[in-house]
Amino acid sequence: MATLLYRLGRASFRHRRLVLVLWIVLLAALGGAAAAFKGSMSSDFSIPGTEAQRAMDALGKQFPQASGATGTIVVAVPKGETLAAADNKAAVQGLAKEASALPGVVGAVDPFQAGAVSQDGRHALIQVQFEKAAADLTDAQRTAYEDSGKTAEAAGLQVEHGGEVAQAEPHVGGTSEAIGIAVAAVVLVVTFGSLVAAGMTLLNALVGVGVGMAGLYALTGVVDMNSTAPILALMLGLAVGIDYSLFLTSRYRQNLAEGLEPQEAAGRAVGTAGSAVVFAGATVVIALAGLSVVGIPFLSVMGLAASATVAVAVLVAITLQPALLGFAGPRLTPGRKGRKGEGRHEGAAKRKRTPFGFRWAYVVTRHRVPFILAGVLALGGLAYPVTQMHLALPDAGSSAEGSPGREAYDLISEGFGPGFNGRLAAVVTGGSKEATARAAQRAATEIKGIDGVVAVTPPQISPSGTAALLSVVPESGPSDPATERLIHDIRDGTADIGGVELTGQTALGVDVSEKLADALPVYLLLVVGLSVLLLMLVFRSILVPVKAALGFLLTVGATFGITVLVFQEGHLAGLLGVDNPGPLISFLPILLIGILFGLAMDYEVFLVSRMREDFTHGDTARQATISGMGHGARVVTAAALIMIAVFGGFVLMDDAIIKSIGFALAVGVAIDAFVVRMTIVPAVMSLLDRRAWWLPRWLGRALPDIDIEGERLRARLDEEPKVPARV
To answer: What pLDDT does 175 receive?
Structure first.
């Protein structure tokens, strides 16, 4: 692979104009396809086969008039007034008529006829039924719904719009991404000391992200995609795209400093560092694509979308980056200045100082036991809150303050109690009208007697008479653990009736969370096993992969613990704009494991491969560890800071899902890069000494020698006569 990449790097450098044009044409073509074929995205997190989903499907068949999206318009009057007053009642009824006439609406219920007025008489709920599902509604229909009620507001009523229709989708492109890119640009300039090198690296990453995102949006017309998937793909594609380009540019400059001519320097950079990029990218792609084995459709789409963007970032890095380096040529040589009168001696003077990476490695390896104990104990302590982690799907209560959905949620809680935001639906089916009616009445009686149930509506019989619908109002809110227990109590209490299934958005969320929780240990075992196998192939060692996998587990545990403290328990939540702490999003743990696995292996390979190289060339185990850290610390630090900046930028978004994912990834990268890979790893490597590289002979013969750092390639090239090449 190293030889193939070496030739690809030289070819891209030599034919740089053609490579650049091809990528620009591809970007333009995919951009046009995205504009022409972009479809709608949903906020659906359902899982086929669960009880809640089966009941929801049955509900759509038996009650087709209620199968579309629902909206809830909340109306309130100030304290001291009631909606029963003639003027207020007329305004509310007028709003109900206005809502029933909105485009795409089947009907809206007068709250006075439906008994949807609060006990204090100040709040009322207008249920709005749409013909189509939320994902199929047009922007015009959503806007018309959100703009309704102007006349009622003019009459002095407070009007808020909630329900599925009011759930805003996160959007790509904005301040969050801009801040991440700006910080990344600063880090690149500081790392390279060159605006040209930083600009090329950033441009390369942006082209990759543009191609990946354009292709992703072009597919939304034919693929059912969750609205979170593009944000995740952008977040990850931008971060790894900058990092991979950083690795290649750094190696190219190092090759120039060693006296290689530009084309050869680019070829060797792609053949050596490019091999590590391909391996690191492959691990991320495999881990994300591996989410498909969980068997959850929306998670599979998210994983495949993000993995495709990472794959594009790798292709762009190993083709477009050497092409862009070709335009710069020798101008990127370290110490070379673009202005007259400045030369290499300044860079040489700087290089006489011992880099911080070497000094840090020396301290860590000298005091290895205290560093190992401190690191493990600290990360173990941070992981403790994981024992209290509660998972759920997001609801309007986790939306940003001031958003329509959040305002409606708070107003409903104020007037009717938090349970009205998470109403449940019990679907009862029977073989005949009589059997269905008896089962429905029995289920209603049973459910009313369960603690935590506020009210159960009378059974609504379907036109066929073989199904009945009961609306159940819990006492607690949709994301409250008490509601989750209530759902299980209702299911247990009606199990002997037969034909009773519980559904609703809250029940769907509980089923999704439980299935994801069941899949998490299997996926974690898969990822850890994969990391051990891959690193065993790369480093031809048993203890190094085991150490890497254990370090990854420390990273994951501490990251989850900190995320629980902030987003669930509310510690320092205000600093991050988390105004309503609550359960973590159900798919965050499994998604975080997949992404952090690839990034952790990226840093592991970059640091430890140099240690192995120096050890095989005769250095002692400790010398090799110090050398590997010294040469790789600067680039890994820059890469980690860029990752943290890109992921951290998404914390500024209002969407609770994206905010928590961005925070967890930023924290995870910081812990893994600086605590695990750059502190615990060199300390453990020094402690293991030569034993770190032990591999049984029989296993050594069975394993293929990947040579990821291109050691054999360099040896072969060093033996060949040097032929000057045209730049």
So the answer is: 65
Amino acid letter, 319: T
**Coil, strand or helix at 127:** strand
Pick the CATH number of 353-401+511-706 from 3.50.50.60, 1.20.1640.10, 3.30.1490.20, 3.40.50.720: 1.20.1640.10
What is residue 620's predicted lDDT score, i.e. its pLDDT? 87
Stretch (H or E) spanning 117: none
Domain 424-503 class, CATH top level: alpha beta
Q: What is 74-96 written as a DSSP string?
A: EEE--TT--TTSHHHHHHHHHHH
Where does 498-543 show beta strands of DSSP type E?
500-503
What are 123's strand-pairing partners? 76
DSSP H or E segment with residue 469: strand 467-474
Residue that is written with structure tokens 């970007």 in the block: 27
pLDDT at 174 over 70: no
Separation CA 60–CA 579 (nearest Å): 36
Residue pair 11/267 in contact by the 8 Å Cβ criterion: no
The structure tokens 């069941």 sit at: 518
Residue 341: band (very low, low, confident or very high) from pLDDT cuts 50, 70, 90: very low
User: 3-class SS at 583?
Assistant: coil
* 148 contacts 98 by C-beta, under 8 angstroms: yes
Supply the pLDDT for residue 347: 45
Q: Which residues contact 171 (CB under 8 A, 6 or more apart)?
A: none
| Tokens encoding 410 | 């708070």
Distance CA 402, CA 250 (A): 46
Q: Is residue 584 within a helix (H) or strand (E), and if so which, with residue range?
A: strand 584-585
Q: Determine the Cα–Cα distance for residues 204 and 318; give it in Å rounded to an integer.
A: 10
Out of 3.30.70, 3.40.50, 2.60.120, 1.10.3470, select the CATH number for domain 64-166.
Answer: 3.30.70
The domains spanning 1-43+171-337 and 424-503 adopt the same CATH topology: no
Number of Cα atoms under 13 Å in the Cβ half of residue 462: 25
Q: Could you report the per-residue pLDDT of 366-379, keeping only the tens digit for each? A: 999 999 999 999 99
Q: Where do we find the tokens 């990360």?
A: 379
Pick the more confident residue, 242 or 13.
13
Judge contact between 636 and 607, C-beta under 8 A: yes
In sequence order, what E strands does 423-464 have? 424-429, 453-456, 460-461
pLDDT digits (tens, 9 = 90+) for 500-555: 999 888 888 888 888 888 888 888 888 888 878 888 887 888 999 999 889 999 99
- pLDDT category at 559 given cuts 50, 70, 90 is very high
Q: What is the enclosing helix (H) or strand (E) of 162?
A: strand 158-163
Q: Where are the domains of the chain?
A: 1-43+171-337, 64-166, 353-401+511-706, 424-503
DSSP calls for 586-608: TTHHHHHHHHHHHHHHHHHHHHH
Order of strands, sheet of 105-108, starting from the edge strand that comes earlier in the sequence: 105-108, 123-130, 70-76, 158-163
In 100-157, which ranges are E strands?
105-108, 123-130
pLDDT in tens, 394-434: 777 777 777 778 888 899 999 999 998 888 989 998 888 88
Residue 540: which of 693, 367, 722 has the closest Cα? 693
1-43+171-337 topology per CATH: Multidrug efflux transporter AcrB transmembrane fold (1.20.1640)
**Contact (Cβ atoms closer than 8 angstroms) between residue 130 and residue 144:** no
